[in-house]
């Protein structure tokens, strides 16, 4: 375990930087070559055939697009951006269906972690680190409304985000439906859970759902979950940090699954 920790720490380097692509044509060619940006910013009011072609490609690949004032692009870079800046993804996103199928094919029961509107990059990175160390197959994250895989997130994860599969979903509810149809159960972390984390059934094909720092797991995902689990607390503060809660729950899942 110590050697694995050292390997992960070795990936926590200050040299991790977000790569940017400037201009309509370079970004279009990057997309055609399979290099997927994590997000793209285009100057408000831009028109023309090249712009339309780029926007269509972004839509096909479900890549978030922001229309922003030129002043914002100028603050991001001094390069000749031509009104377009793309931030290339630091990881290659996985397909959740393929992750599940791979686990079944290898004779394992899939173990996923879904993050519902977790926006703090440090919490995101810490959860990714716990998930990877607990043996989870993948993280399932929303395309919008969640923390990005930025250099800060990778550093907070001690490099785990470069190791664990990350599946980006355009709609977490629909993805959850698909996950259920493939034989997994959803277990949601909630302050008002019906089971404590050590009494909950976390073996078998399962997806643990962790909610936002402010509101917890959203109502639709809570309703789809077969169980809501909580962590007993004995102090006076109302709740645990979501990354701490994630570590406790995921390692209880790892304990149960390895015991089985």
How would you explain this protein's 3D organization?
The chain is of the alpha/beta class and 260 residues long. It has two domains: 20-88, Ribosomal protein L30/S12 (60s Ribosomal Protein L30, Chain: A); 96-259, SPOUT methyltransferase, trefoil knot domain (Alpha/beta knot, 3-Layer(aba) Sandwich). The protein is 38% helix and 19% strand. The chain is built from ten helices and eleven strands. The protein has helices at 2-10, 24-32, 49-60, 70-76, 96-105, 121-133, 151-156, 172-181, 219-224, 242-259; strands spanning 20-22, 37-43, 65-68, 84-88, 111-115, 138-142, 165-169, 185-189, 195-196, 206-210, 227-230. The strands form two sheets. It has a seven-stranded parallel β-sheet, with helices on both faces. A four-stranded mixed β-sheet has the order 1-4-2-3. Helix 2 (24-32) packs parallel to helix 3 (49-60) and helix 6 runs parallel beside helix 10 (242-259). The chain is elongated and about 60 Å long. Mean pLDDT is 89; it is low at 1-15.
List the helices and strands and how they pair.
Elements: H1 2-10, E1 20-22, H2 24-32, E2 37-43, H3 49-60, E3 65-68, H4 70-76, E4 84-88, H5 96-105, E5 111-115, H6 121-133, E6 138-142, H7 151-156, E7 165-169, H8 172-181, E8 185-189, E9 195-196, E10 206-210, H9 219-224, E11 227-230, H10 242-259
Parallel strand pairs: 2-3, 5-6, 5-10, 6-7, 8-10, 8-11, 9-11
Antiparallel strand pairs: 1-4, 2-4
Helix pairs in contact: 2-3, 6-10
